[in-house]
Design a protein that fits this description.
The complex is a heterodimer of chains A (471) and B (485). Chain A is an all-alpha fold and 471 residues long. In chain A, 66% of the residues lie in helices and 3% in strands. Chain A contains 16 helices and 4 strands. In chain B, helix 11 (220-229) packs antiparallel against helix 17 (385-401) and helix 12 crosses helix 17. Helices cover 40% and strands 17% of the residues of chain B. Chain B starts with a helix and ends with a helix. Chain B has 18 helices and 18 strands. The chains are: A mainly alpha (471), B alpha+beta (485). Chain A binds chain B through residues 103-104, 107, 262, 265-267, 269, 306, 311, 315, 318, 321-322, 324-329, 338, 341, 356, 360-361, 364-365, 368-369, 371-372, 375-376, 379-380, 382-383, 388, 391-392, 395, 398-399, 402-403, 405-406, 409-410, 413-415, and chain B through 1-9, 11-13, 15-16, 18-20, 22-24, 26-28, 30-35, 37, 39-42, 45, 71-72.
């Protein structure tokens, strides 16, 4: 066996663990946000920000702990996932901190909720990041083997259903019912549901894949599934439509449905499932759009962001587009843009436009490539995984991640209608940070299993020469 | 399962690719459009982010900036004697954009112009705060004051030019407005803005550049110029063989004369008392196409950019003969901006050479280096120097002996022409009183001026031009002559 393949996730026997690579990359992933932090301070106040040591130490510590845990509990894991996630999280923190300094946003809040009602989001986000990394550590320590998750297939289904249905009973926040509020806490269950659903699908499809793939009739070049196998698909389809109708959450239903189509396709290896998936999502989308005013409005905003009627209702998309334009090729520089003109949700759903404005096209390309890298490392992990459950789970998680990035970034950039979701890691929000750290932890766990050197073959008792049995 | 996995990998790659293409599209291809979008508040924020440069007249700023306590707009525009200078500066409002010089030279005034790149870079190294550059105008403060105060409560406009260079010396329009009144974006600014927009006297209309008036008898100098230039008259003191009453060609309509003694009058005499019949006949003799040619050489039928855009004055190219005859005395649909008539006067006073009018002398960087200096530029030569001098003789005669005596200045050669333009159906509306004139010393003419007063109540042809508009022209010329000394 050669060792040439050690640049890939597919581990050869005696593949190096790559932990030192990861450590070095983590160094960059901590240093870059610290420089960005200094940059914001210099741009806004003309001096080094007071908290630079604390901030650098804080994220350095978090990254260090995460690294040590990976070193100990997932020795052969993919070395890119953790540094990339840490880099995004760090840059997100800097941008949230930068938007905290915006007089425009502070005045906006204080004029609405009264003097002194503004509280900065960055410290909270730092706390969420810490909790997120704790969750990351917990997953790696407790989940010794991802195949354990198979046992929870049907529990996951139940949990996902509850998580997705619950927000219907809570009041809508800014037009979308995607929140569960418990006293002072509120969580977005959709963020966690994507992981739990991926677990359920993996477990379910692993068992049913043969039935779905083979027991079908050929009709006009397509493999039509049997009715009873079609059942779960129709349930998922119906659920995503229900989410769309009752929670007016276009993003989650799109994510949910896309995830299912991807996993079905991978499990069955039948293109016909994609055709069905697209057909059904088209039917669902058109059907809902024909009577749901919220969805119609989103489409209208998307098509005519600068129309006067759009502008009077919501100038967010237009403002986001102008942010990107203002950034141009090289950006205005951190702290020097006016992306806070977006106002509401500037540091959560629309944080990407702040990056677009202040980092420019160059920065945006880097950003999107970082996301692309995370996704492709996830797919790599799926390719390398040796068990079908691991393969399905890895592709499910990376697919969900990819769709989420596409839906959010595409919405903010006016490529597709806007849906309310958060940009993983960079956007402000506890649920999002926690869920994505857990997602990365599971991917790291699968990649560790996939790249772990195969144990040396046990000495076989049959090693002796085969004896010829004579009659 | 690896084959579909690879396909999913490609699919995810395509999603990212779509985002990459989109971000390139937004931030590279569409960036300029987005940055110029009128809904983009950054334009305003940027405009007021630094102390804005000033518009300068004779070394003194007629604009200013005050610091505000606003999160978006750090500075606000102020104006010194706003109503008087509004036709020159235009306005710069946080809520209502900007216009005229404030808009055209926005790059220099904000300091964002590429031409200030070096200054910006230097300021970056020296740590200076970014500042805007200045726009130095050609205007003459005394002339502007004379024009604005001369118009007073009357509705009208004045344009004065230095014929030798084309420098605009005065540009007044009344009723005017104070650009300071809506420079911010608060409620009171919106109120002021709405009131100005609803005002039926249109105070925000720049009458000197953007309003076309029927020029009335002042247009006769162009007809006279065409008659001389195209050889229809060679001696201005020779009778013109014009019958009185003169019947418009191909019609039975008589051309009415308000003055006596127009039968067979000489060109000089016809100018002096403003005979309609003589000029209508001359216009017809010259023919429509030649009249159009002459008018266009003086600048009719095209917009001028001084650098503020003016409306195009009109001399119709498709009229029939009687209409052309009417147009030759400034009636029918002939229309001119006050600046256009000042240009006509200036060309005559400058011996036939028309200089391109301009009102920005130079642009200065924040540290007062000259970035761009406007050089006088010849626009056209509508008439020969000899014919120009003949026209001067006639116009000076008008001031000495004719309808324009109100503009006479002791010890200075002044030439002029009055006009009262009827308008409205059946002349139902109050006529416009016009006066165009120039003053001349040993070194050529330092000033040519056109005055129009809209709401004159006088009905009598030409007298009102001389009575209402000529004193204003005189005051402006006096002011320029004083500054010349």
């Amino acid at each position: 066996m050669s060792v040439v393949t050690n640049t890939t996730t597919i581990g050869a026997i005696d593949a190096p663990s790559r932990r030192n690579t990861e450590l070095m990359l983590l160094g960059f992933a901590v240093a870059i946000p610290v420089f960005a932090y200094i940059n914001v301070g210099l741009a806004l106040d003309g001096e080094l920000p007071a908290g630079v040591l604390g901030y650098g130490f804080g994220i350095g510590l978090l990254a260090g702990v995460a690294h040590l845990v990976v070193r100990k509990f997932a020795k052969y894991a993919d070395p890119l996932l953790l540094p990339l996630a840490a880099l995004l999280n760090g840059l997100g923190l800097v941008m949230i901190w930068r938007l905290d300094q915006s007089q425009r946003l502070i005045q906006r809040i204080e004029s609405r909720y009264g003097e002194g009602s503004f509280s900065p989001d960055a410290p909270k986000q730092l706390m969420y990041s810490a909790i997120g990394i704790t969750l990351f550590v917990a997953v790696l320590m407790l989940l010794k083997d991802h195949r354990i998750l198979q046992r929870y297939t049907y529990i996951s289904m139940a949990a996902a259903l509850v998580l997705l249905v619950l927000p219907m009973f809570f009041p809508a926040v800014n037009g979308a019912k995607i929140w569960i509020s418990l006293g002072p806490f509120s969580i977005q269950p959709g963020e966690f549901a994507k992981i739990i659903i991926a677990i359920f699908f993996s477990g379910y499809l692993m068992v049913k894949r043969d039935a779905l793939a083979l027991a079908s009739r050929r009709f006009m070049g397509l493999y039509l599934p049997r009715g009873r196998d079609l059942g779960p698909i129709l349930v998922v389809w119906a659920m995503s439509i229900l989410i769309l109708v009752f929670e007016t959450d276009l993003g989650t239903s799109l994510l949910f449905f896309g995830l299912f189509v991807i996993m079905l396709y991978v499990a069955t290896e039948r293109t016909s499932w994609i055709v069905f998936g697209l057909l059904m999502s088209a039917v669902g989308a058109v059907g809902v759009a024909s009577f749901e005013p919220h969805v119609q409005q989103r489409v209208e905003f998307w098509l005519n962001p600068f129309a006067q009627s759009t502008w009077e209702q919501s100038d967010q998309i237009g403002q986001a587009l102008m942010s990107f334009g203002a950034g141009g090729t090289l950006g205005t520089g951190l702290g020097q843009g006016d992306s806070d003109l977006i106002g509401f949700a500037a540091n959560s759903d629309f944080i990407l436009s702040s990056f677009g404005e202040e980092f420019g096209l160059a920065g945006m390309m880097a950003f999107l490539l970082i996301y692309g890298l995370i996704v492709e490392r996830g797919v790599r992990t799926a390719l390398a995984a040796r068990d079908p459950f691991g393969k399905l789970l890895a592709i499910g998680l990376s697919g969900a991640f990819a769709i989420q990035v596409f839906v959010v970034a595409g919405g903010v950039m006016g490529l597709i209608p806007l849906t309310g979701m958060t940009m993983p890691f960079v956007a402000y929000g506890g649920s999002s940070v926690l869920a994505n750290w857990a997602l990365i932890a599971i991917l790291i766990r699968i990649s560790d299993t996939a790249r772990r050197p195969a144990p040396a073959p046990a000495p076989s008792p049959d090693a002796e020469m085969t004896q010829v049995v004579r009659p | 399962m690896n084959k579909p996995l690879r396909r999913i990998a490609i699919f995810c790659g395509l999603l990212v690719l779509a985002l990459l293409v989109r971000t390139n599209w937004l931030q590279y291809v569409e960036a300029d459009d987005l940055n110029a979008n009128s809904k983009n508040r950054r334009i305003q924020i940027e405009r007021y982010a630094n102390e804005r440069g000033n518009i300068v007249v004779e070394g003194k700023a007629i604009t200013g900036s005050v610091k505000t306590n606003d999160t978006d707009f750090e500075y606000k525009r102020t104006y010194v004697n706003g109503p008087m200078w509004a036709p020159v500066t235009g306005y710069a409002s946080q809520a209502f954009d900007a216009n005229q010089i404030e808009k055209i030279e926005d790059g220099i005034l904000t300091g964002n112009s590429d031409r200030l790149f070096f200054d910006r870079t230097m300021a970056m190294f020296t740590g200076d705060k970014k500042k805007g550059g200045n726009v130095v105008t050609t205007l003459d403060a005394a002339a502007q004051k004379a024009a604005f105060e001369g118009l007073g409560d009357k509705k009208g406009a004045v344009a004065a030019i230095d014929p030798r260079t084309g420098k605009i010396l005065a540009l007044a329009s009344t009723p005017s407005y104070d650009p300071s009144s809506f420079a911010g974006y608060r409620d009171k600014d919106a109120k002021a803005w709405n009131a100005l927009n609803k005002d039926k006297d249109k105070p925000m209309l720049n009458r000197a550049l953007r309003e076309v008036y029927p020029p009335g008898s002042t247009f006769k100098v162009i007809t006279a110029a065409a008659a001389l230039e195209y050889g229809k008259v060679s001696d201005i003191n020779e009778p013109t063989k014009t019958p009185d009453p003169y019947i418009l060609p191909n019609t039975r309509t008589e051309m009415v004369n308000h003055a006596g003694g127009c039968e067979n009058a000489t060109l000089n005499r016809a100018m002096e008392v403003s005979c309609n019949s003589v000029f209508a006949k001359l216009g017809d003799d010259v023919t429509r196409d030649k009249m159009v040619e002459m008018a266009e050489k003086f600048g009719f039928n095209s917009e001028a950019f001084v650098p503020v855009r003016t409306s195009a004055s009109v001399y119709d190219k498709k009229m029939d003969r009687p209409q052309n005859a009417l147009s030759s005395i400034g009636q029918f649909n002939t229309a001119a901006t006050p600046l256009q008539m000042a240009m006509v006067t200036a060309a005559i006073a400058n011996d036939g050479k028309l200089m391109k009018p301009y009102m920005i002398d130079k642009l200065e960087s924040p540290n007062v280096d000259v970035i761009e200096q406007t050089e006088p530029e010849e626009m056209s030569r509508p008439i020969s120097p000899e014919n120009a001098q003949l026209l001067q003789q006639m116009m000076e005669n008008v001031v000495e002996n004719g309808t324009g005596t109100n503009a006479a200045i002791d010890g200075v050669k002044v030439g002029g022409k009055t006009g009262t333009a009827q308008h409205g159906e059946n002349n139902s509306k109050n006529p416009y009183a016009w006066f165009i004139s120039y003053a001349k010393g040993e070194n050529g003419s330092p000033v040519a001026v056109a005055v129009v007063v809209e709401d004159s109540n006088a009905r009598r042809d030409d007298i009102s031009g001389g009575g209402l508009a000529a004193p204003i022209a005189k005051a402006v010329m006096n002011a320029v002559l004083e500054s010349e000394k």
